[in-house]
Amino acid sequence: MSPTFDPSDPDAFLVELETLRGEDPQAALDELNGAGPVLGERPEARLLAADLNWELTGAEAARPLLESLVRDVPDYADARYMLGSLYEGVGEDEARVEEFLEVLRLDEGLDAGLDAEDSRELSNLIVETAEGAIEGLPEAFREKLAEVPVLVEPRPSEELVREGLDPRALGLFEGATDLDHENNETLALPTRIVLYSANLLAESIDEDQLKAEVVTTVLHELGHYFGLEEEDLTRLGLD
Length: 239
Prior knowledge:
The protein has 239 residues and is mainly α. The chain has helices spanning 10-23, 25-33, 37-40, 43-57, 59-72, 77-89, 93-108, 116-135, 139-144, 158-162, 178-182, 197-202, 207-225, 230-235, and strands spanning 150-153, 171-174, 192-196. The protein has 2 domains: 10-108, Tetratricopeptide repeat domain (Serine Threonine Protein Phosphatase 5, Tetratricopeptide repeat, Alpha Horseshoe); 111-235, Zincin-like, CATH 3.30.2010. The chain has a 3-stranded mixed β-sheet. α4 (43-57) runs antiparallel to α5 and α8 crosses α13 (207-225).
């Protein structure tokens, strides 16, 4: 059954649209288009409209909607993130970096809400969960990982985002792979896995989901260490 627009509760209507979207994206877009200006001018509704147009018609249909939204609401990080992702998909690297740097700046503005003690507790929880995931691996893998540190940082650095890293990445593998070590090859960067605590927290609604995200992320990055490609990781459910 399609949702009925209630102008007194647009937030609930948008939640209903997200549910409908999973079943019938076109019906969700039709409902959104028919909801009128009360809902249609809300930034969240405009972002959903752009996302649905992208899904149903392609990036070029979403592009003017996103660019207009970012012009009107320049501090809307989610809109900038989607626009940066669109630019990435069409190969406009300079525009992608510009949007992703703004996303990083806006997201970093949220970090002030986490005090030092909370931040330490979060980092400790992430490290303990990651170490537990590694301890669960077969011994042959654990031995290879003995010299691979797992570090926690709030978010990717500006330098990494300029180099192409997603500002909302959950983790990163850097340095020599297992094969490089076997071949006695060295790289300028030390081998390490970095987990981004603020991004992991943003993806989680509670501690259990946070732990699950950490396990999936650390195994994903370990997959890179062992030479797995993104397709392999997706097949293993580690995307």
